[in-house]
Amino acid sequence: MRDASSALWQALQSGNPIIVVLYEDADLREDLVSEMEALLPLGRKAQRSSDVTDVFTTLDVFLFLTPVDERQSLLVLDGRREALLDRRAPVILLLLRDGEGVRSLSEVPGLASWLQGNEIDPYSLQQIDWKQERATFERQTGMSPEGWLEAYRAGRIPDTLENGLLATQAGLLENLP
Amino acid sequence: MSHMNWNRLAPHRPLEAGDALRVERPSNNAERLASLIKAGMGPIAVVGPVGSGKSTELAAASKALEASFVTALVPLDRLMDMRQLDEGLMFIHAGHQLAQSAGSFRLSLSRSSGAFDFYRAPEDLHSQTRASRNDLLSFLREVRRSSPQRAVALLLDGLEKCPGDIARQAIRSLLTLREAAELVVVTPLDLVTGPEGYELLTELRAFPVRPVPVFRDTETDWQAGRAFLKEVFRRRMGLSVLDADLERPLTLAAVASNGLPRTFLQILRSAGGYAAIANRELPSDEDVYAAIQDQKESLQRILRDGDLAILARENGSDGLEIPIDRRIRLLAHGLLLEYEERGKIVVRMNRLLQFSGHLVP
Question: Are residues A26 and A80 in the same domain?
């Protein structure tokens, strides 16, 4: 199933040195980063940064990068993208949907090619058909997202990888109107 | 079937010279490139869309040249920031790679006190130290004179990632060394295309690395192109044979990739991820289509106003009616792709943009 959580999960686990995640606004970005942190493999370190040079120095942590100057950061990453191959955990580059960074992707063909298929737009994925997603969730689990989450949070559902993904899905569905 | 580790596909990982993972392409670009150099038909500018395999073919050509040349493969993009390319630093890296090759040939080069020491690793030099053109030229001549092959080839990768003016200046500098070494340079498309490209094309021979043919509805050897991509997959995954159940996802990914090896690997890597989420060992059609949709959306983000109309209009033509700046941009991003069909070069719109939810293999 191609939904926000599965797209994020597969991108985070893909072994790609860099992925892009698009956010709707600064407030929702914080929620998004928290959700992604919950999807990380157990025991892996994460760090948040706005400084693009951290990409080349903190090689072992999942680096959530929210650059102040998105365009300039893309140019830096494009110019040194082969150095990204030294990373042992990915950079998660957070860019504003339709913002300067996304518009600048056309200036950096090399980096854009690396990112191809690894630009996750959770907002857009959530827009696909949330009613259908909810129905699929209910068919899959036999419970509503709210009911499932309540049981999960109370520890009545085991904390496995698969259930971790379902929890993220349920969280996204729970927040929808 | 053993557990599939999809991370082994590593779409971004470049291959080294002589890498066992390299698969010979249907058009065998590396061998042709090496033959041109051996025939003295350089300097050569290697061009092609992102992800078409330029670096891989350059590395393979370097290996093929080793018997006839002291060869230095210089992956500049792995050694320095290509947005701030510095000529003196470029000379240091080129000289150091050559020194390493010369070392492997057990050459006894003089290390006179006045000469630049290219044997020292660049990272051990003072950050402000730079080599001059004279330093490199002198070293190239010395290696050439002292080597059994009596010839040197420099193969430089990464200049296509520089801003145009910086790349042009760097290539101009390198061309002044052609008396001492055969040169192969991966070059930005805009430097060898259109009116501005004529200037450099009088001094460089363009060598395109195009996508491999994969479309059944074109008069090409699409079976060979698909077989090539499937063999790339088999080797990267470390499989002794391809299971029959892999045939369909590999074929779908090959068609969706438009023949670009990196895109092919990216699609399968993502499809494998979607399959893992659903507890499937191998990707279903749904998994592959989800990965293709991710690719399509990425391509759509780099489209500019009017691109789609032009791509549709020029599909299957020679593409020469497209205004030059737009044509270069579309080609560089792989939104427009060149193929050789029936002895002619035609341009085709990247079919990922037309993906509507399913594919006919």
Answer: yes
